[in-house]
C-alpha cells in the first residue's frame, strides 16, 4: 500500500478523514444554533469523556458548524496555571471579528469592554508595560467588565456580546477545551454568566469539553449547573461506526478491508477513535495490497502498540514522579484483580492496601496525578485513569 496515500490521521485533536459516530451530536447542535438565534430557551453544552475519544475533534466540528452559520466564534484551552481573562479575551476578540457587525461604534464599544476585561488580569493599578493587550486598538471602556470581580465582569461582558450578536440576528459561541482545568473562581463566574444569559435570552452559548469528572467540577461551583448545561458523554465508537471510520477513508483511496480484518481492528482498538487512527495508519503502511486482511492486522499490531506505548501512554507516564508511578501501577494491579480488567474506577482504599500504606500518606501522590490530568475522581473514594487502556499498558510495559 502506498504510504503517501495513507488516509489515517493519529494526531492530538486532528480531525480524522471520517468523523464517524458523531452524527447525533452534530445534528443536535444544529438545532441549538437555530433555537438560540430565534430567542428560544437553550442550554450551553458540555462534552465529557476520556482522552482519545475525540472530544477536541468534535469541539472543532461544532465550531465549524457555527462558523458556517456566520456566528462569531472563539476557542481557548484552559490551563491550570492560567486565569480565564486573557485567553477568553483573545477568543472573544476573534468572535466579534467573525460576527461582521457593520456599526463601527457598537463594535468598538464591545471591543473596548473586552479590553477592559483583559486589563483587570494585571490589577487595577498595573503599569502600562505589565498590562496585557489582546490586540485591540480601541480604548478600554471604563466602568464595564472591569470591577475586578470575575463573576460580575463576565456577566457584563457576555451581556454586551449578546446584544451585539442580536443586532445582526446571529449568535456568539465560546468553545473551551480542557474545561476541568479552569480555576474555581473562573468556573463559578462562567456558570453565573451562562445562567444570566439563559435568563435574558441573548444569543451567547458556551461549549465546553473535558474529562469525565467535569460535571462534578461544575456542580461543586454552582448547584444549578446540573440544569444549566446539556451534558453529552463522548465514548468509544460502536462497531458499525468503528468500521466506517476505517472503511470510508480506505474507499476514497480505492482500498478495502476484509470482514475478519475489521473485526480484529475493533478488538484491538476497543472502538476508541485515536486508537483507530493509530492502528489504521500502521496497518495501511504494512499491508502489501488491498483488501487489507487479518494477517495484515496481526503483522502491524506490534508496530501500532509500540507507537502508542511511546507517544500516547509513555509520554504521560514519564510526567509522573517515582512515587506517582507506584500509585499508577497499583491502580492497574487493583483493576486487574477485579472481574473486569478495564474497570472504570477502583477504590482508593484498595490502592493503598496494594501499596501497603495508609490512604492519607498517598494523598500527595494522588492529588499530583489529579492535577497532571492522569487520573480523575468521578465519585468520592474512587479513582480512574483518564486514558483508556492505560492500566493494560502499565501491566505489560512497566515492571
UniProtKB/TrEMBL annotation:
InterPro entries: AAA_16, Cyt_c-like_dom, P-loop_NTPase. The keyword Metal-binding applies. Keywords: Heme, Iron, Metal-binding. One of its GO terms (molecular function) is heme binding. Signal peptide: none annotated. It comes from the Bacteria. This is ATPase. Pfam families: AAA_16 (PF13191). The lineage of its organism: Bacteria, Bacillati, Actinomycetota, Actinomycetes, Propionibacteriales. Residues 166-332 form the Cytochrome c domain.
